[in-house]
Automatic annotation (TrEMBL):
InterPro entries: F-box-like_dom_sf, F-box_dom, FBXL15_LRR, Leu-rich_rpt_Cys-con_subtyp, LRR_dom_sf. This is Uncharacterized protein. GO terms for cellular component: SCF ubiquitin ligase complex. PANTHER family: F-BOX PROTEIN YLR352W, PARTNER OF PAIRED, ISOFORM B-RELATED. One of its GO terms (biological process) is SCF-dependent proteasomal ubiquitin-dependent protein catabolic process.
């Protein structure tokens, strides 16, 4: 419907109201199209990103620069998921460094980098250095080493859960440092790691409330520790 002056009703919406409406659009392709309508809509899209508390790039072809451009406007973001998907969300250490400069970093309570095989300890170190509110971290399926766990242990005192699924370059030393320093840690996914079973018993001795995944791992580790050594 158009007004008497030939202006569409939606174009008469205040920019703040328009941005709140655009928050409900979750498809990045639709947001990109909306931003091309006019300058007002482009500004509305930017402001809508500032209202979002959750953001997922799963299923989208994102690279370092495109992800960074979006995150620089997401001031209120608390949960970020940039896990690898079949469509190839590709983030490297360069992208993690750029994201570490975003204003939202200190507010993030949850980050998922699952399957991001192009990141390394350097990128993780940059990212977590400012993620002081982080409670949940998924870095399963990556090639990180103990160096990443040392950085996480030093920078994320509020960490409650971490997914280390198939992180086969992490050793028992990294796990021990993490559990010792992150005293709020409640859960670790250690599936597929190349760590001695005795290490898991040690972790629970340090933090009795710690939950190790997959289920049934701890009883198996405890039985293994009782076996005689010949």
């Amino acid at each position: 419907m158009e007004s008497r002056r030939g202006e569409a009703e939606i174009d008469r919406l205040p920019i703040d109201l328009l941005s709140h409406i655009l928050v409900f659009i979750t498809c990045f392709k639709d947001l990109a199209q909306a931003s091309r309508v006019c300058k007002k809509w482009r500004e509305g899209v930017k402001r809508s990103l500032g209202h979002r508390e959750k953001l997922s790039f799963v299923g989208w072809k994102m690279d370092d620069d495109s992800a960074t451009r979006i995150l620089f406007h997401a001031y209120s973001l608390k949960e970020l998921d940039i896990s690898k998907s079949r469509w190839g969300c590709r983030i490297t250490d360069k992208g993690l460094h750029q994201i570490s400069l975003a204003k939202c970093l200190g507010n993030l309570s949850s980050i998922s980098l699952w399957g991001m095989t192009e990141i390394s300890d350097n990128g993780i170190r940059q990212l977590v250095s400012g993620a002081t509110s982080l409670q949940h971290l998924n870095i399963g399926g990556t090639f990180i080493t103990d160096e990443s766990l040392f950085a996480i242990a030093n920078s994320c005192p509020h960490l409650k859960s971490i997914n280390l699924w198939c992180c086969r370059h992490v050793t028992e030393h990294g796990l021990l440092v993490l559990v010792n320093k992150c005293q709020k840690l409640e859960s670790i996914n250690v599936w597929g790691m190349r760590v001695p079973m005795e290490c898991f018993v040690c972790l629970v001795n340090i933090s009795p409330a710690l939950h190790l995944q997959p289920e049934g791992l701890l009883p198996l580790a405890e039985r293994a520790s009782l076996l005689p050594v010949f």
